[in-house]
Design a protein that fits this description.
The protein is α/β, with parallel strands linked by helices. It folds into 3 domains: 221 residues, FAD/NAD(P)-binding domain (3-Layer(bba) Sandwich), CATH 3.50.50; 112 residues, 3-Layer(bba) Sandwich (FAD/NAD(P)-binding domain); 113 residues, Enolase-like, domain 1. It is built from 13 helices and 22 strands. Strands 1, 2, 3, 4, 5, 6 and 17 form a 7-stranded mixed beta sheet that branches. A hairpin with a 4-residue loop joins strand 12 and strand 13. Helix 1 packs parallel to helix 8 and helix 3 runs parallel beside helix 6. It holds the Pfam family Pyr_redox_dim. Belongs to the class-I pyridine nucleotide-disulfide oxidoreductase family. GO terms for molecular function: dihydrolipoyl dehydrogenase (NADH) activity. Its EC number is 1.8.1.4.
Amino acid sequence: MSDKYDVVVIGAGPGGYVAAIRAAQLGLKTLCIEKYRNDAGKTALGGTCLNVGCIPSKALLDSSFKYHEAKDDFSIHGISHSEMKIDVPTMIARKDQIVTQLTSGVAGLFKGNGVALAEGAAKVLAGKQVEITAQDGSVTVVEAANIIIASGSSPVNIPPAPLFEDVIVDSTGALKINEAPKRLGVIGGGVIGLEMASVWARLGTEVVVLEAMDDFLAMMDKQVSKEARKIFKKQGLDIRTGALVTGTEVDEKARQVTVAYKSGDEEHSEVFDKLIVAVGRRPHTENLLAEDAGVKLDERGFIFVDDYCETDAPGIYAIGDVVRGPMLAHKASEEGVVAAERIAGKKAQINYDCIPSVIYTHPEIAAVGKTEEQLKASGEAYKVGVFPFAASGRAMAANDTAGFVKILADEETDRILGGHIIGPSAADLCQQIVIAMEFGSSAEDLGTIVFGHPTLSEAVHEAALAADGHAIHIGNKKKRKK
């Protein structure tokens, strides 16, 4: 290994590996350092997303939904079967195979682009030197003209519910559950909690979600979160808001856990076979920076950066979960591109107002831009267009009509300010609104574009038309001006 590089990237997750590949593409001599080792004890690239996050959770979500659909919804199509069963170990094995395939793919991309890989834990020293401690304890120091910190994040643990073997698990342990529990408790009603709750509820598990906040999905548009709660209740999820967990007690012999929680002034307890703790994530910055490295942290351990992801130390960048903004893989990846390109002298930037967020339940929930509540609070004059999937011919044909598309636009300029979708293929449909917003489109622009028929995307078209009371396939209410 050479000891001098143009760029040293710390972390090979969706932020780090993208940054490393882009830097190498730009002709920069690049080293990427990764310390994560999989259950087989081998270094695995891809970070949380590929190994124990986005990808494996989606594999389980897709498998469980196919089972649920075949078991409960095929009859409406005239498809009958005598018995339906799920082999959970096979479902888990498929998830693991997908992870292996994708992480190996990143290693191939490194090789193809000429990115050097160092296995071990990194620490940023003064003078843009990076110390690498290998698994065997040996230490190497490399010099970097530039450094990109992409060390990611890890699940937050809470004192009332310490992890215990396979009974109390975090989001990583939740991916290893190899049989459907009779009763599952989930602490946290956010993205991870709802996705894991959905997987097991579809397989017949009784699921209780304990959310400490009084509002459900508080970060989402309230009209969407209200609809989501209604739909999830029909699906069998018992979602309890304002439920603050105060303690847990594990019965090792019975392999169960009793969870105590407060709701208002009342004390409650529930017994579960498994408990998933999904209350958020914290940045991986412990032991990452020497005191004289010149990189500053805030009180929560996040690294201070400017609009272009550069830290207080010139030539040192930080991206992804260790900096401000949503902890999203696609946000980290684009920040990685920005950091690499700015190092190469290009004027790259990212538009933080157009980063979509998605919850991969069914129906999916996706959003970009401002919510109606944010617009009300800011005093901006806006208008609203909503189109329900119940009025979509394509959704009806697919027996998938829950939810709606909601578009918010400026009352005066008609510029799209936000898009919020709960329904089939919400993630992909929302991307159409993201593209429109990136180009400064108006609701009228979307309304005058020809959309294929019959498609789910027509719901986006109709919601844009509805913003001015021009929707064709639903009755238009009196134009809503706010």
